[in-house]
Structures are given as C-alpha cells and as structure tokens.
Amino acid sequence: MSKSPLNVLFLCTHNSARSILAEATLNHIGRGRFKGYSAGSSPRENQQPNPIGLQTLRNAGISTDGLSSKSWDAFALPDAPHMDLIITVCDNAAGEVCPFWPGKPATAHWGYADPSAGDGSDAEKAAAFQQTLHAIRRRLDLLVNLPPHKLEAMVLEETAKELAKA
C-alpha cells in the first residue's frame, strides 16, 4: 500500500447517522493509513448529523469536528478526493444507482439497522446508536488491521465484502 491514505466513502440515504458514525470512527482509528468520508444519496434540505449520534461519538472519545451531511454528488465531481473504497451502510443506498465514481473504486455493502428509526425514548435511541457504533467499530477495527496485501486495489473489494460477514 502506498504512503497516501486509503480513502473510504460511507454512503447512506440521508447521511445523518450510520455513515456519519462510520466516517468519524475510521478517522479516529485509521492511524493515517485511512481517511473516512461520508455522504447521502438524498440528504434532506438542511440535513444535519443526528444529535444523538454526535453525542454517542463524543461519549466514545471520537471527534465530531467537521462532520456534516452532504450529497454523494460532491464526491463525483472532478476535484473530489479519489475514493479507493465505497461502502454502503444502509439497504436503501445499496439498492440505488450510484453516480460514476472516478477511478472505479472497490465497493461493498455493510448493512446496519437505522438507530434513529422508531419512536423510542431518548435513552432507547441512545442505546441503539451505541449498539450501531459498536458494530461499525468492530468491522472497521478488522479493516484497519488488515495486512497491506489485503488492501491492494485488486483484492480490496473482495476483502471488504468478506468483512460484511464479520
């Protein structure tokens, strides 16, 4: 693997919960070898990261600086960072037609239930966010600890898809 970080884009529908958790977590544990980004296929107008999700990250000691909800179109622009791996984290985004990604990055789907769904109490939602963060962290810990040969362009997609089973 080269000295430049492996860029990973996490996609969800609104880019307010799961993809935000994944972006922040990868940037926290990536040790300079990985750079996380997130986006949504159709973020709502004035969409912001879910406040319970942001609090869950802070409680875990993960920085929330710079996190924002944005459209995946921003990453299909010519001046956007080149992505090496794109991971959908919700079933809706996985089933949508994605934009053309320059460089043909590897892709994988790591589905997680939406922790912001439902009408539970704030405590129940906080517990759902904590559970989702734990599940995301488990897979990302495996990703960042892979040997370099598992992260080479030709092997990356297969490796990421295998981690979906972890």
Topology readout:
Elements: E1 6-12, H1 18-29, E2 34-40, H2 51-59, E3 85-88, H3 91-94, E4 106-109, H4 122-144, H5 153-163
Parallel strand pairs: 1-2, 1-3, 3-4
Helix pairs in contact: 1-4, 2-4
- Structurally, the number of domains stands at 1
Category from helices, strands and their pairing? alpha/beta
CATH topology: Rossmann fold
Number of strands: 4
Which percent bin holds the helix content? Answer: 25-40%
Radius of gyration: 15 Å
Oligomer: single chain
Flag low-confidence runs: none
The biggest beta sheet reads: 4 strands, parallel
Sketch the topology as an H/E string, one letter per element. Answer: EHEHEHEHH
What is the 3D form?
A: globular
**The named CATH superfamily:** Response regulator
Number of helical stretches of at least 4 residues? 5
CATH class reads Alpha Beta
Instruction: Tell me the span between the first and last alpha carbons.
Output: 23 Å
The fraction of residues assigned to DSSP E strands is 5-15%
Which CATH-level-2 architecture? 3-Layer(aba) Sandwich
Please, what is the average pLDDT? 88
Describe what this molecule looks like in 3D.
- With 166 residues, the chain is α/β, with parallel strands linked by helices.
- It has one domain (6-157): Rossmann fold (3-Layer(aba) Sandwich).
- The chain is built from five helices and four strands.
- A four-stranded parallel β-sheet has the order 2-1-3-4.
- Helix 1 links the parallel strand 1 (6-12) and strand 2.
- Helix 2 (51-59) crosses helix 4.
- The model has no long low-confidence stretch (mean pLDDT 88).
